[in-house]
Every structure is written in C-alpha cells, then in structure tokens.
C-alpha cells in the first residue's frame, strides 16, 4: 500500500469510525482531516486556511438571511395561515388532515426552506390535531416528517445555495426554478400514499369543499406567500442576486410577522434571532470543516479513484446513476446534509455529468437523497425532531414511514431518469442548464 492509499484510508477510516462513535459531525470531519495531514507531514495551518476559504464566498451570504427569514416566518403566525389555506383546498378529501399535512409542507417549505423548521412548527400543530380526529399517532408523525422534505426542494432552500457553492457557481436561480416540479411531484406522491392508507385504515374525511372559503383563505395567506415571489421571481428575472433577495425577504418577513399577522413582538424577535444564530453557527462550522476535508479529498485525487471504481463495476449509465443514488442514500444514514453536499459534490458531480446529467439535475437529485437521509436512523435529525414533537418512539415512527419512503424513492427515480422534471422550468425561465 503506497502513501496515497494509506492517507485515503486514514482520512475516510478515521472519519467513519468517529461517526460510528457518535462524534459530532464537525469534530469527525476536522479530526480526520488533521490525522491525515499529520500522516502526510503537511502543515496543520492548512486546515485553518481551507476552513476560511470554504466560507469566504459571496453567494454564501444568502444562507444566514434565508435561515433568519425562515425562523421569523415560522414564529410569526405564518404556519396557521398556511394550514388554513391547505385545509380549504384539500381538507375535504379522504384523510383530509393527512392531505393538508402534505400540501401545507409544500407551501411552508417555500417560506422556510427547511425540513426541520417545517416539522417543528407545523408538526406541533398538525400531529395533535390528527390524533384528536382519530389518526394513528405514528402515521401522523410519519407523514409530517416525510412531507417536510418538500421544503428542501422548494425554494428558497439554503441547501441549494450551499450546493451552488460546492458545484463552483451553478446558478442559484436555476436551482430554485428546478425545485418546483420535483417538490410538487413529491407532494403528489405522498398525497397518493396518504389516500390509499387513509382508505385502508378508514381515517376520517373532511367537510365539503367550499369555494368561497378557499378564495378567502387564499387572500388571507397572500402576505405569507408573497415572500416566495420576492425570492424566486426576483432572482429568476434578474432583479436581485440570491443574497439581495434573501436580505429583502428578511425585512419583509419581519414586517409581516410584526404588523400584519401580529404573531410576533419585538421581544420575540430577539428570541428568533438567537435561534437563527444557533442554527447558522452549526451550518457554518460544518461548512468550514468540510472545506478542509474536501481539500484533502481533491489533493489525494479521491474523486478520480471513486469514479474509476464505479466504472470498474459498470459502464451502464442507468446502473451508474443508481449507484450514485445508493452512495448518497447510504451517506444520508450516517451524515448530516451540509457535509454530504460539500464532500460528495466534487466527487460525484463529474461522474454524473459523464452520464449526461446537468449540474441542475444532479443538484436536485442530491437534495432529495439528502432529504431522505434526514428521515433515516441513526443520524436522521428530522426523524428525531418528529419523534420528539409527537412523543413517539423512533422505531415505531420508522415502521410507519416505510410506505412513504416508497413514495419518495419513486419521485427520486423520476428526478434521476427524466431530465425534464428538473430542467423544464429553468429552461423556460431562460437559464442555461
């Protein structure tokens, strides 16, 4: 075994060992990087240099704004308006509240851009409501956590901004536009799964559809949904950069939460900002340490080694695409979302492009794989949040989630093998994909 192979073994082996020992992800990444550099006799100051370089990006300035916007809107009474709108539109169907759960995640995801925020805020309202109406608690938790993944696909998703940086500047606007159809497909597939399960288990049906009430709720939720227009339309037509639109959306969400919906006061604003800073600090330290880890992967030519290993298994584009998905799904079981994006993009994106995927298609596929990972033990953060909100054992929630995993995998296959699912809207908007 030569020095390079031994260095790769130390880097990846120590990283996986620390993951198994339940080290925090940022410590796992940083310590494995340090061990490998010491073996290679590289100066450890390189770690600091690469950490600074990883977060020294103008496009990343959008991330704290999007996180802050989601926190303000989540605490400002927006969730209730979204639930009322979804209930008016689909609450009359079989399994009405389950359908509402799917649809309001699509709407709320477009505001918060976070599966965790969706589960924590909407789950605390909808899970008790569903249980009170006769739904099984584990079923209610399962549909809440799986539908929350829509928020990762539907803009403004700060994870797409992170991917844009990792992919060397793919357009954030194109990624935002690309997420809408996959997000809608995921919502639809979960609603179909809900419809079948609600029929089988004889869960309650909502009241009759009321057109007047639906129109009324659309107008009531206008101020909430307008934040999406500020971000997506502003970026798509070139009025703002992603960072500028995010900053404007923070100010807008503050005004709406304080003075229109009045779900937040100035004391509450400080609490929300504290929460946003806590979230942001975790995201940035993970990004910084992952930057140093990614530097070593590139230095040791790991992307070429992985690509060569996969080509050694098969040259069939379909099988290669499936292998890429399997790798990402496996990593999702043991790692958080941000480091997966930062570490795997330089490795797997060139391979995906070789089989005909665009950067945009791969990015959306990566998002959904990571989203599924958020729901899988042992590191599924959204799974933990959902179990905590519902006060249900995690193993029972996982069993109840199995039918919805199938719905998500079907959507993932459509994204993987039908380029138009991700590329249609960006192309129509004039982006070069």
Structure description:
The longest helix is centred in the middle third of the chain and has 34 residues, at 266-299. The protein has helices at 3-20, 25-39, 45-55, 62-75, 78-90, 96-112, 115-132, 137-147, 150-153, 158-166, 172-178, 180-201, 211-220, 222-236, 242-260, 266-299, 302-313, 317-334, 337-354, 359-373, 381-390, 394-417, 420-428. The protein is built from 23 helices and no strands. The two termini are 42 Å apart. The mean pLDDT is 82. It has 433 residues and is an all-alpha fold. The chain folds into two domains: 1-42; 43-428, no CATH class.
Number of domains: 2
Rg calc: 21 Å
Oligomeric state: single chain
The unreliable regions are none
Biggest pleated-sheet summary: none
- Proportion in helices: over 70%
Q: Which structural category do the helix and sheet elements fall into?
A: mainly alpha
Strand content range: under 5%
Q: How many H/I helical runs?
A: 23
Q: Could you spell the SSE succession in H and E letters?
A: HHHHHHHHHHHHHHHHHHHHHHH
Shape by Cα distribution: globular
Number of strands: 0
The average pLDDT score comes to: 82
- The N- and C-terminal alpha carbons lie at a distance of 42 Å
Notable features of this structure?
433 residues; mainly alpha; globular
């Amino acid at each position: 075994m030569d020095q390079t192979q031994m260095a790769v073994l130390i880097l990846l082996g120590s990283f996986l060992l620390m993951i198994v020992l339940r080290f925090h992800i940022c410590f796992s990444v940083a310590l494995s990087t340090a061990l490998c550099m010491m073996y290679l006799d590289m100066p450890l100051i390189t770690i600091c240099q690469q950490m600074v370089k990883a977060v020294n990006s103008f496009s990343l300035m959008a991330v704290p704004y999007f996180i802050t916007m989601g926190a303000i809107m989540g605490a400002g009474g927006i969730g209730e308006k979204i639930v009322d709108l979804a209930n008016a539109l689909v609450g009359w169907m079989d399994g009405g509240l389950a359908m509402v759960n799917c649809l309001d995640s699509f709407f709320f995801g477009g505001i918060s851009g976070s599966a965790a925020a969706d589960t924590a805020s909407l789950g605390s309202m909808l899970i008790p409501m569903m249980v009170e109406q006769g739904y099984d608690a584990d079923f209610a938790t399962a549909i809440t956590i799986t539908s929350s993944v829509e928020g990762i696909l539907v803009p403004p998703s700060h994870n797409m901004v992170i991917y844009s940086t990792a992919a060397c500047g793919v357009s954030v606007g194109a990624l935002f536009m690309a997420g809408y159809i996959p997000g809608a497909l995921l919502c639809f597939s979960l609603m179909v799964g809900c419809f079948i399960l609600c029929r089988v288990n004889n869960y309650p049906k909502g009241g009759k559809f009321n057109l007047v009430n639906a129109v009324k709720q659309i107008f009531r939720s206008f101020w909430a949904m307008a934040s999406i227009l500020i971000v997506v339309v502003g970026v798509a037509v070139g009025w703002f950069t992603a960072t500028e639109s995010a900053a404007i959306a923070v100010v807008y969400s503050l005004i709406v939460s304080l003075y229109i919906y009045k779900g937040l006061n100035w004391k509450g604003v400080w609490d929300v900002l504290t929460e946003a800073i806590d979230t942001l600090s975790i995201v940035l330290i993970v990004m910084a340490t992952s930057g140093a880890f990614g530097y070593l992967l590139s230095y040791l030519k790991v992307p070429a080694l992985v690509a060569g290993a996969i080509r050694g298994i098969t040259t069939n584009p379909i099988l290669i695409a499936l292998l890429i998905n399997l790798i990402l799904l496996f990593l999702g079981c043991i790692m958080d979302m941000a480091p997966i994006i930062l570490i795997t993009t330089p490795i797997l994106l060139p391979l995906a492009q070789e089989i005909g995927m665009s950067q945009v298609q791969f990015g959306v596929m990566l998002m959904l794989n990571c989203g599924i990972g958020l729901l899988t033990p042992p590191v599924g953060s959204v799974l933990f949040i959902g179990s905590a909100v519902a006060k249900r054992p995690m193993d029972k929630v996982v069993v109840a989630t199995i039918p919805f995993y199938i719905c998500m995998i079907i959507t993932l296959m459509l994204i993987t093998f039908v380029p138009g699912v991700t590329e249609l809207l960006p192309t129509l908007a004039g982006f070069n994909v």
